[in-house]
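USER: Study each token:
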Amino acid sequence: MEQKVKGNLVIIGGAEDKKGDSKILKKVLSVMDMKEGALVILTTATELPDEVGSEYRAVFERLGAPNIDVLNINTREDANMDEYCQRISNSNGIFFTGGDQLRITSILGGTKVYTALMDSYYRGTVIAGTSAGASAMSNTMIVNGNDNDPARKCTLKMASGLGLLEEAIIDQHFDQRGRFGRLLCGVAENPYMLGVGIDEDTAIRVYPDAHFEVIGSNAVTIIDGNSIRSSNVSELKPDEILAITNVTVHVLTEGYGFDMQSKQVLRLH
């Protein structure tokens, strides 16, 4: 599509530093105007909302966030409550914790809270997410797949995401959990989508013009399927090793960025 992103996103690969310099979470606050409105922490992804919400509240308070609102939206009934919609609409930033990305989409999808979230996004509210909260950002997300395994056909489970970032597939804990093979399968099945694998303690800051910059201590792997000449992904024989030719791969660290429209690497400094 012509417009891949319509707002401001910070997408984190998980296991970000919470006790030291906390560079990535500081970045989350720096791109949000926290003078007015609250930072809303959405714990929908986790089955331990009180524990996880309290942890992130403490971290963001330490980093100077003046107004923090933890929303434990755990059912679709919760997600249709006008009170929660209002709190999201009044926020200046929204942060999705980790957990299970399918909880995010199955609980929020098609609800009043989802509508309020998208309205806020279109108005320019910054939305950030870590781990499962990162995977759910795209319009198609990986739900399950084999870690530390060669790319195999028919081993990837995918579902619709929140749709904040179009024509991309986000994977997280990328190098640490050996997820290159499963992201490669995702791109082979959907060559028009950009595969974005984000390592732990690493993030991308996505701008409305569809370019992003890399932040953090590790790397971001880009898999571009536009250049693929052939693959066996559509053939029979489930679990067969994937064969693919001429795929384009970039590995980027802090100081680099990527333009998702032109598919060009950017050297930022």
Notes: Helices lie at 23-30, 49-62, 82-89, 101-108, 112-122, 132-135, 180-189. The first strand starts at residue 9 and ends at 12.
